[in-house]
Design brief:
flat; 264 residues; single chain; 2 domains
Length: 264
């Protein structure tokens, strides 16, 4: 089976998964697990969009843009869920009640817009892969994977050099995630050379797929703390200072673990 046929199979699987997760999400938009599940499915579909040759990306521009808009509209909802969960583990009494009420109110206002976007995406016709050719696809796969590998290689030393490089860490986290899902969407024979390069860059002795997940988990936890501290800082509440201090201490521990993991 050629690369185009294998990719089409992966694309159909990702598109079907998004459709299912959208239906589940629209049925329970207040359920934080449904929010997480639909976002994960969207990331995998976005990876297949990235791998389409230019002609197909132009043809499917409306679908691609709509999926991106829904993902963005859903991001603040997910952030509020993360912040609420982290605060619940540290804040107590009246402080938690007050913070949770504020987060719930903000989350509710974001959900309405996200649900509207979800309905729009769900009603759109499926993207078309008509005319996809093996050679064009394989060239695009190598181009995208190579570009992401280059970005990760460049970003890693910048991030590990200083724990205060919050924005750089956020970019690295996103690029690692894109690279993981892009490689996942590629046929094995096309994927393996890039996985070897990724393992070398990430200094991992485990298979690339396991290494990606390991690093994503660490970076994800650090990012969760960053958005929590940023939110609490914006409130200017003295009562929240101990919570922020606890979060910052946990961030330092996780950052040291991550930096050691990619250096050693």
């Amino acid at each position: 089976m050629g690369s185009a046929a294998l990719f089409a199979r992966q694309f159909d699987k990702s598109a079907k998964r998004v459709k299912e997760r959208l239906e589940e999400y629209m049925g329970e938009p207040e359920n934080d697990e449904k929010v997480h599940d639909v976002r994960t499915a969207l990331r995998r579909l976005e990876a297949t969009f990235m791998l389409m040759p230019k002609k197909l990306r132009r043809r499917n521009r409306k679908q691609i843009d709509a999926h991106k808009q829904f993902f963005r509209s859903n991001s603040r909802v997910r952030d509020y869920d993360i912040i609420r969960g982290r605060i619940a583990a540290r804040a107590q009494g009246d402080l938690f009640v007050q913070l949770a009420a504020d987060l719930d109110r903000k989350r509710k206002s974001e959900v309405a817009g996200a649900v509207r976007m979800a309905r729009r995406v769900s009603a759109m016709p499926a993207a078309s892969l008509k005319g996809l050719k093996d050679g064009d696809l394989e060239s695009r796969m190598d181009e995208v994977a190579g570009r992401l590998l280059g970005k990760v290689k460049k970003e890693l030393p910048v991030v590990t050099a200083d724990r205060k490089n919050v924005e750089e860490l956020h970019r690295l986290r996103k690029d690692l995630k894109k690279l993981r899902y892009v490689l996942e969407a590629m046929p094995a024979r096309q994927r393996k050379p890039h996985e070897k390069k990724a393992s070398k860059i990430l200094n991992g002795k485990k298979p690339a797929e396991e290494r990606f997940k390991e690093l994503q988990d660490m970076l994800g936890q650090i990012h969760d703390i960053d958005i929590t501290v940023q939110y609490l800082s914006s409130l200017g509440k003295k009562e929240a200072i101990p919570v922020m201090q606890g979060e910052k201490a946990e961030r330092d521990r996780l950052f040291d673990k991550f930096a050691k993991s990619v250096r050693s």
